[in-house]
Amino acid sequence: MTTATETLLPGTDIVLEQLPKVSLHDHLDGGLRPQTIIDLAAGIGLELPASTAEELGAWFAEKSNSGSLVEYLKTFDITTAVMQTAEGLRRVAHEFVLDLAADGVIWGEIRWAPEQHQQKGLSLDEAVEAVQAGLDDGVAEARADGRTIRVGQLISAMRHADRGLEIAELAVRHRHAGVVGFDIAGAEAGFPAGRMRDAFDHLAQSFFPATVHAGEADGLDSIRGALLDGRALRLGHGVRLAEDIEISTENGTSYARLGELAEWIKDRRICLETSPSSNLQTGAIAQWGDEMVDHPLDLFYQLGFLVTVNTDNRLMSGTTLSRELALVSDAFGYDLDDVLTLQLNAASAAFLSVDDRETLTDAIIAGFEPFLDAEDAR
């Protein structure tokens, strides 16, 4: 029998929370606990659409199932509103780490946009420092409870604003104090990576890694821009790259022809940070269908792309990384070896040093081995 915090790998008795995992695409303002929102809202007089944690969680899930990224993003008005003080940011970051650790995450990259947290007078640096203090609190508490976890901040610049260079400089300034990478987020269509070319130039000159949201609410041109203008090492979501893959069938056998863009991304091992539930909610995969089995994740996986599974926003999708892995395993018939491959993919794409990536890879393999041995013995 499972508890409310246990998610089984379909067809097995393996509890996915017990497996070591890597989370590459997880937004700080999309992972708040509903009760925390209620507590913080009371302190600032913010009116909420629900009065209990259960009802508020259900409200977020309902509002996030719009099929539109623009509508989906409106739910963040509430979460960011309670994250405008150092105390609020520190608490949210602290709990964020604890929730990742409880899910078995051993390396987590936590992305957020400091420019959205200055309404109460925090400077950009103060906001980053507050979040880092919370992350450190969470790591220390998790380790005291016997859990192993490390985390890093991904600093995001909002695509529609004109603060890209300022935010890139902020990220680089904190590279030795918890920040491991840069991102651009927000409304994708109409706001290409090229608008922030100066920011990406600064990052490149500083040898600082970037991931770019691309191929979620816009198509192949957005992905090209992420690579050419953004020098992206990873693509946030990237699911519409499937538009550059042509499938044909001959004598009952399916063949895939990759366009130049898809071929480049595959051959250069540029990571795709898919977030299956979120991609369904925002309509990112609408041209292929509206069920998990329609997600191009499996196409990428079967063709050998460096594809990963992520949560995007755990509050809005009512999910965890374990749940996402269970959903895709159920949809595509993945077994424990496939789940391991997905985690090794994520480890290889982490914004860590080569030595740290190798250590992370070893930890994942060691954590999976007892379960693989048990499966082999059956």
Automatic annotation (TrEMBL):
Top-rank taxon of the source lineage equals Bacteria
The UniProt record lists the Adenosine deaminase domain at 20-365
Q: Which GO terms describe its molecular function?
A: adenosine deaminase activity; metal ion binding
Gene Ontology BP, a term:
hypoxanthine salvage
Fetch the Pfam families from UniProt: A_deaminase (PF00962)
GO cellular component term, pick one: cytosol
> Cofactor(s) for this protein?
Zn(2+)
What keywords appear on the UniProt entry? Hydrolase, Metal-binding, Zinc
The protein's Enzyme Commission number = 3.5.4.4
**Xref: InterPro entries:** A_deaminase_dom, Ado/ade_deaminase, Metal_Hydrolase
Describe the family membership recorded for this protein in Swiss-Prot or TrEMBL: Belongs to the metallo-dependent hydrolases superfamily. Adenosine and AMP deaminases family.
Family matches, as NCBIfam families? aden_deam (TIGR01430), PRK09358.1-2 (NF006847)
Name of the protein described by the UniProt record: adenosine deaminase
Its source organism is Microcella daejeonensis
